[in-house]
Every structure is written in C-alpha cells, then in structure tokens.
Write a structure and sequence with these properties.
Layout lengths: L6 H18 L5 H16 L2 H39 L1 H6 L9 H19 L1 H18 L4 H19 L5 H10 L3 H33 L24 H24 L5 H23 L3 H20 L2 H9 L4 H6 L10 H12 L4 H15 L9 H15 L3 H19 L6 H7 L3 H26 L1
Keywords: Membrane, Transmembrane, Transmembrane helix
Protein name: Transporter
Organism: Cohnella xylanilytica
Length: about 475
C-alpha cells in the first residue's frame, strides 16, 4: 500500500542528508541531530514545550537502548586495567610468543591473538593487554614495529570490531536502527566480515613483504618515542597467583562461550553473561591485589571503566536519539502523528523510494558501503552506524529483501573506516603501543581496506 509522505518524512530525510554532509566535512553532528529532533518534535506536537521536552526524552530513550552496551564495554575496560597493572596479561600472552619464529608467523600470530582478545575485551583494551608484551617478541624475529601495528589494528579494530560477536555493541546499534533482531544482523555479517578480513589482511601482508623486499618500506617510527605500555602503574602480585589467574581467566570466558551455545544465549543474555563474569573477575583480582584497599579500589577501577565507556558513547547518544525516531521511538515519544498505515518514517521512505527510483541489490550495496564509510569519517566508527541501519532499512523496503545483509554491510564499512583502521586519530592506541606514526599506519592501511571494501561490496550484491 502506498503511504503519502508528509512533512515529517521530508524533514527527517533532509536532516539525514545534512548529517552525511557534516560527516564528509569531518564536522561534529551532535548539533545537527539535536536540531533534527527539535524539528520533528515541533511538527509532531505543534508545541514549543513538547518539542523541547522531546529532545531530552529522545536522549533518555537512546540511553536506555544503549545502556547495556555502554555497561559491558565499561566493565570490560575496568577488568582489563586490573589485568594490566597486576601483570597478569603478560603471563596470559607469554606462552604464545614462542610461536613467533619468523616475521610472517609474528604478523599472523599477533593478528589472531588480537582478534580473539578484541572479541572479549574490545580492541583498545585488547591493544593495551597484549601489545606491549607481543611487540618485543615480534621485533626480535624481524617483524617491523609498523607491521605489528598493522596486524593489531586490522585484526582488532577491523575484523573483531566490525563483527563484535561476543560483546555485540556494533550489531546492537545497527540492528536497532534497522528494526531487526541482533542475531539476524550478526548472522548476515559473518560472510561479509570473513571476506573483508581475509582480503584486507592478506593484501596488507603481501604489500608489506613486497615493499620490504624492494627496499621501499618506511618504518614510520616516531622520533624519540619507543614502544610503551598503555598503563604505567603496577600492582605487585606473587608469581604463583599471577600464573593461576592467567589460566583461570581464559577458562572462565571459554566456559561463557560454551554456555552461550548450550543455553542458546544471544543478544542481551549473552552480553550479561560476559559482563557478570568480568565483574566477578574484577572484584576477585582487586581484593587479592590491593588487600586492605581492595574495596575502595574496586570502585576506582569501575569509575575508570565508566569514564572510558561514556567518553566513547557520549557522541553516539544524540545521533542514535535522532535515528531511533525513524522507527518505533517516534510513536512512543511523540505520539501517532504519522499517516495511517505507516510503519515508521524510514520504512515509509523506503516504499516511496521503490516507487520512484529503480533500486536493486547493486545500487543498495554500493550505497550502504559509501554510507557506512562516510559515517566512519569522524573516527568513531560507532557514532554513525545508526544511520547505516536506517538507510539499510530504507533500501531493503524498496528492494523487498536483503535488509540484514545491507545493515551488516553498512556496519562493516563504518567500523573498518572509523573504528580505527583509516582515520589517524582513531589509530592512536595501536600506534602508541608500537611507537609508530598514526598517519603512516593509516597510509599503510588505506589501500588494503579500500580493496577489501570493494570486494566485500561485490559479495554483498549477490547476497542481497
């Protein structure tokens, strides 16, 4: 059934275009999103007080939707701080360094270890957990520091974060914006994440090998800077306690993964299991390490983790608030002011698009890749994936299929560009650990990531 578009639809679409323009210019979009919410609320309520209240209410709505994601990331970071300061992370990683006997083994070894660590700890804490330990071993066997940074970056901030299969922060955002279950987006992302990961890392390794053989490799070391640990503080622990903890912690998380499969836990239930385990580990290690001060230090570690979590998601909340209004949040917050038969602003725009423009899987896939990449230009990776989810829903409504695939494609493109593989200011964690220039790291990543996005987009065309 055709839906007649009204002023709400056109205003929403105008602000989407404006947000994308701001992202291309690398300007902050918070003010634009707030203005968009204000405009939609004023049209819907025809009241100044109602429209002003709509801004705050939409922020509350977005925060409630994102709260589980913010909490799990904050708690994981809190726990990682304890592991770093007690030196347990070094014991956990040390056995793996013996497999690094050649530059190739070091590159792929660092990558795989970083991939697994990032699934459970997220990439930035993962870099801190393993980077300072693995880097010296890799350099000893001939892998350049810049090569180690590429491996950590592409596998952690690229492959692991774009799928985010354990913590599920990224698929939660895109799935909510597209109006899909998280599990559906995660399932659709698997082939895309695999293709993107294999193509990008293989080309990155080959180009490094080629340039070193030709003598054109630039190490990109920062003058006067040596590889450093992400956390200078240390808390002494007996070696025997460190060894036991280094064994038990991975076992606990592996048991969590087993429980997810056995009990069929997905989405919020799976995240809650990981989060609860992390809290218990944090409490136990802090009490053991800090003894009499342990009770107070638990709070200190949690505060540190939540500071990180809200710093990461602070810019996301206004953007998510705007894009949630494109779906179910509109009626809940602003009343039923959409045309009869409407299924939400985004879906209505998708139907209208199908009736006016020839849209197919090819056009949809290219559009989602470009949209995701553009939203990543702010260096967050997360701040714009709600837009990718909304655009995917719009195009899927027009095409009649492929909503989960298009949503996952937009997510993959946004995370790879903005999550920490191309934007220099997002590359700082890996660059700092390895003592290399983030700009040189971004330059080395550019061609592999662009080729990977191209191949992944072509694959998505056949899956839509």
């Amino acid at each position: 059934m055709d839906i007649e578009l009204n002023s709400l639809h056109w205003v929403y679409l105008a602000f989407i275009v404006l947000i994308m323009a701001m992202l291309i210019k690398r300007r902050d979009t918070t003010m634009v999103c707030v203005a968009g919410i204000l405009a939609l609320a004023f049209i819907a309520t025809e009241s100044l007080s109602g429209s002003v209240s709509g801004i705050f209410n939409s922020f509350i709505y977005a925060t409630k939707e994102l709260l589980g994601t913010i909490f799990i990331i904050s708690i994981i970071v809190s726990m990682s701080r304890v592991l770093i300061r007690t030196g347990i992370n070094e014991i956990m990683v040390a056995p793996l360094t013996r497999f690094m006997r050649t530059p190739a083994l070091a590159f792929w070894g660092i990558g795989v270890i970083m991939l697994v660590a990032s699934w459970f700890f997220w990439p930035s804490p993962g870099v801190a957990l393993i980077g300072a330990v693995l880097l010296p071993a890799a350099v000893r066997v001939g892998l350049p520091a810049l090569g180690a940074a590429m491996a950590m970056n592409l596998f952690g901030h690229g492959i692991a974060l774009s799928g985010d299969y354990v913590i599920q922060g990224a698929p939660k955002l895109t799935a909510d914006a597209a109006g899909l279950p998280v599990s559906e987006v995660m399932e659709a992302s698997v082939p895309l994440v695999i293709v993107m990961g294999v193509v990008t890392t293989a080309f990155a390794f080959w180009s490094m090998y080629r340039d070193r053989k030709r003598g054109t490799w630039r190490e990109g070391l920062v003058a006067g800077q040596s590889p450093v640990s992400a956390d200078a503080g240390s808390v002494p622990l007996p070696p025997r306690v460190k060894r036991w903890a280094a064994v038990l912690i991975p076992i606990l998380f592996v048991l969590d993964v087993v429980a997810m499969f056995v009990l069929d836990l997905q989405g919020g239930d799976a995240t809650a299991l990981i989060g609860g385990t992390a809290i218990l580990i944090l409490i136990a290690l802090t009490l053991i390490a800090h003894r009499n001060q342990g009770i107070e230090e638990i709070t200190a570690y949690m505060v540190e983790g939540f500071q990180f979590g809200f710093k990461i998601f602070g810019p996301v909340i206004p953007i998510a608030a705007f894009f949630y209004l494109g779906d179910a949040a509109f009626t809940e917050l602003l009343g039923n002011r959409l045309p009869e038969g409407s299924h939400g602003i985004v879906n209505d725009l998708g139907v209208a698009l199908a009736n006016t423009v020839p849209v197919n899987g090819v056009v949809g896939s290219i559009t989602l890749t470009v949209t995701g990449a553009v939203t990543g230009l702010d260096g967050s990776g997360f701040s714009g994936i709600s837009l990718a989810g909304s655009v995917a829903s719009m195009f899927a409504s027009a095409i009649g299929s492929g909503e989960a695939t298009l949503t996952a494609l937009g997510q993959v493109a946004a995370i790879w560009v903005g999550g920490g593989t191309l934007i220099p200011w997002a590359l700082i964690p890996a660059a700092a650990i390895c003592g290399v220039s983030p700009f040189e790291l971004a330059r080395r990543n550019l061609k592999p990531v662009l080729i990977g996005l191209g191949v992944t987009t072509i694959v998505a065309m056949f899956l839509v």
